[in-house]
Amino acid sequence: MSTRTSALDAVVYGVDVQSGDVRGDAPSYALVRYDGDDVARDVVSHRKLRRLIDDEEPAIVATDNMYELAADKDELIHFLGSLPAGTKLVQVTGAQQPEPLSRVAKRHGIPYGKEPMKEAEAAARLAAHSVGHEVSAFTDTTEVKVSRGRSTGSGGWSEDRFTRRIHGSVKKRAREVESELEDANLEYEKDVREAYGGFANAIFTVEARPQDIPVSRNRSGDVRVEIERERRDGIEFRPLAKRRDHVVVGIDPGTTTAVAIVGLEGEVLDVWSSRTSDTAEVIEWIVERGRPIVVAADVTPIPETVEKFRRSFDAAGWTPESDLPIDEKQHRTRDHQYENDHQRDAMAAALYAVDAHEDQFERIAAKLPPGIDRGEVTARVVAGEESVEAVLTDLEDDDESDEETTAHEPRELTDEERRIKDLEKQVERLQSHVGSLEDRLEEKDDRIDELESELDESRRKERKEVRRNREVTRYRRKAERLEYERDEAREEVEKLEKKVERMKALWKLDHSNFSDVSAEKEGLVPVKVVEKFTKGAIREADDQYGIAAGDVVYVRDASGAGRSTAELLADFEPRVILKEGGLSDAADEILFDAEIPVGPAGDVAMQEVDELAVAREDDVEAVIDDWHERAEERRRDRKAAMVDQLISEHRAGDNEV
What we know:
By secondary structure, the protein is α/β, with parallel strands linked by helices. It contains 17 helices and 21 strands. Helix 8 packs across helix 9 and helix 9 (341-367) crosses helix 10. It is elongated, with a radius of gyration of 53 Å.
């Protein structure tokens, strides 16, 4: 059994094609469920396999050929994208050039048989022991997008408040996501699109896989959170366990032990030194980084400590013809980094050993057919001193079946045995037929589920279309209402513009210090026009252009005014009231008592401009003077009437006596 440590504490699925083809119709799969102790076996359809993966979310789905689960690259990428976040697809036979499953199983001591169920079990056990390569179409970068969960155009009359609420909710959720990423110490970049009241969306590009991010995909009310892994340009294979390639090791022993690991192509993979590590710790460090083919020293003969390490790995040894000079070691390691002279010496020993074996490595590589592990052959040739041909022959023999066939003479079966055999075949056929019927029934159930899903989708689309039509109708009505309001606003603007023009004209008349319009020079006075002698007309005129003390007021129709109306106009303290028509006695009395001159408008020459008017100052003064004369006479008449009344009352009193 392999000495690898299992990397899994969860369920592993082993899968192999039982019958059919994924490129054809209805393939079935041998499925083995392995949890490290128990093994469960089943034969399932492709659809049921997908459903089981979604329901149980195994840690690994293992297979000897990834294209047994998908017809082509596009379908494979789709399959990988549909796997649960914590599930990996593992090809246990290698990466781009997979080995036969039988060879991999034998190498790691895993039981193997040619039946699909046994191959599925072998794949599950190999993956459970970290054998194989994870198949990936996605990077370890994940995009988390926080965006609106609904349209901002469905807020009715409160659309602005509705939009602000949605964008505010997106901003709040984005801050929560950012806080969760910070708490998890994850590296990320943030891209925010601001909008009215908050964020339209926020995109976090996180350097982690979805299962490592403390945020889940969801949609709630105004906000939705979407999580999507970044796609690769192609398919990538990553070993489940850190690969231990064949390497050349340089060692510099002493008080400080230094070790350098160099690949067969001459690339420096790692370098390390320690003053306190013992032999076991040095060996463990080397084992974690590769399988030594050659162990080298920078002096000759090989030091005893280095020889012990060589024997521990059963590797070939290398030493220079004479001790390597310091300047040569410095020159050979000039392109690489090291912390001290001990690491430099170990690195120089390994690099010179690679240089010495370079031709041999190239000759071995040239003789190897495709699909053969170069490191394994090189190790056996260099360290084991075997020929390349002998190693290849031995590897080919490993691929042959280990099953032995024993020749024997068949005996004639009895009638009972033949009957039993016929019945067994019949049972097998019936069982196969039952299995086919069950598969067909399952497929029909799946088809019913699909049709029901399609029906639900159609209904959903229909409801969406109805809602959209309602939205269109609502927007049309809203557009018509806004157009009507716009037209009304334009009319109001026109009225206000005209009013402004009138107010400007009136202002010019009221302000004699304007050089272009001087009421004193022209002998004109502004007149405030009141359509009727009613409270409403007076207030309307006051709202339009204001009535102030000392203004000349022109009432087009003075009839019908009562005491309260006269008192309202008298409170403005106008200079004079010019009227058309007759005043009521009550109104005349109120205005007379308030000493507000009242005169006929016909005595004044006026020119009207819309609701405004101007009059000659001389005519206005004449009306005022005339009123004062009449007022004086009226006061005299009133006094005379009072005197007559007193005399009459006195005489009446004397007669009574």
